[in-house]
Amino acid sequence: MNNAPLSPTPRPVCVLGLGLIGGSLVRDLREAGRPVFGWNRSTATVEAATADGVDASTDLVATLHRAAAQDALLVLGVPVPALPTLLEAVAAHAPDCGLTDVVSVKGDVLETVTAHGLAGRYVGGHPMAGTADSGWDATTVGLFRDAVWVVTHDNAQDDPAWVDVWRRVVEMAETTGAVVVPARTAAHDSAVARISHLPHVVAEALSITADRGGALALSLAATSFRDGTRVAGTAPHLVQAMCENNRDALVTALDETLALLTSARDALTDPDDGIGTMAHDGHDARLRYEAFAGRTRETPANRPLIRVQPGAPGWLDQLHYAETLGARIDVF
Ligand code: NAP
């Protein structure tokens, strides 16, 4: 957690959607003593969150009026299909609030935000953390600790108000204990297609293939199967929304994987060939990943660090450079 002193009148965060990600964000901000309130569509979630001490409501219009009056930073914590209705309400009732989101794809969100005339106050976000569980009951303090929180900047405005939103989004992410890695929308969507959406599709295929092996296959499955298919436990509607909203980048990554699998299959059907090269290449690739991100969740990551002064001359070039390195940033 960031233990930096609180400013005298900290502006609140208003989280719209108190599911796993939005609800865990609320819990972290509360834990850090930051002012936060939220809205959720279903009454059951609002009742559960309120019982846990959270300031939450099912009244969207009233919540947005409050956010506008208190200059709150709005956080969209819902899946892509829910965005148009929510953004329509934001545009009508809190158009001047800073706006961010936690959605797993960034292209569609930027497009929808722009279509609602809200890009001037929008900074995209994506915390690279989660579990296979959903809803308020799955929320937890510390979900984002040491995780990467991607913050986008391709709609950067030469406007102090936009820079202020960018700074607030970074500060909010750091309050949860996350490290901020800047990336533009296309670069983010291409990267997450490879490291998140493709693994979801592959995990579904692995699970289906194992299941078709019958009871004995499932009975024998041990840790490697559990690890390789963990994300297939995610709620199907979320997987569908993630993957279908990043189709182009996912198809590119899937084509590469299919070519590798086809070549492995061809090699296995040829008694004079084998999968040695693939096994070595895959092993080397995994070691490179471990060197970058740490061998386990507990071991330290080795991302480069770039110090950035928001709004200073050349600061966006620094963010682009950080994107190419996958570097985290430190804001001063
Ligand atoms: P979740 O636990 O299932 O929560 C979904 C939230 O969205 C709930 O508050 C739900 O409200 C609300 N919602 C769904 N459809 C809605 C609609 N049509 N109108 C209004 N509200 C609606 O999901 P989550 O994992 O927190 O995912 C939320 C966002 O975080 C998604 O955009 C996802 O891409 C992103 N994300 C997820 C992960 C992950 O690992 N799960 C990681 C990073 C980012 P109700 O209670 O009324 O259903």
Automatic annotation (TrEMBL):
<comment type="similarity">
    <text>Belongs to the prephenate/arogenate dehydrogenase family.</text>
</comment>
<dbReference type="GO" id="GO:0008977">
    <property type="term" value="F:prephenate dehydrogenase (NAD+) activity"/>
</dbReference>
<feature type="domain" description="Prephenate/arogenate dehydrogenase">
    <location>
        <begin position="11"/>
        <end position="308"/>
    </location>
</feature>
<dbReference type="GO" id="GO:0004665">
    <property type="term" value="F:prephenate dehydrogenase (NADP+) activity"/>
</dbReference>
<dbReference type="InterPro" id="IPR008927">
    <property type="entry name" value="6-PGluconate_DH-like_C_sf"/>
</dbReference>
<dbReference type="InterPro" id="IPR046825">
    <property type="entry name" value="PDH_C"/>
</dbReference>
<dbReference type="InterPro" id="IPR046826">
    <property type="entry name" value="PDH_N"/>
</dbReference>
<dbReference type="Pfam" id="PF02153">
    <property type="entry name" value="PDH_N"/>
</dbReference>
<dbReference type="InterPro" id="IPR036291">
    <property type="entry name" value="NAD(P)-bd_dom_sf"/>
</dbReference>
<dbReference type="GO" id="GO:0070403">
    <property type="term" value="F:NAD+ binding"/>
</dbReference>
<dbReference type="InterPro" id="IPR050812">
    <property type="entry name" value="Preph/Arog_dehydrog"/>
</dbReference>
<keyword id="KW-0560">Oxidoreductase</keyword>
<protein>
    <submittedName>
        <fullName>Prephenate dehydrogenase</fullName>
        <ecNumber>1.3.1.12</ecNumber>
    </submittedName>
</protein>
<dbReference type="GO" id="GO:0006571">
    <property type="term" value="P:tyrosine biosynthetic process"/>
</dbReference>
<dbReference type="Pfam" id="PF20463">
    <property type="entry name" value="PDH_C"/>
</dbReference>
<dbReference type="InterPro" id="IPR003099">
    <property type="entry name" value="Prephen_DH"/>
</dbReference>
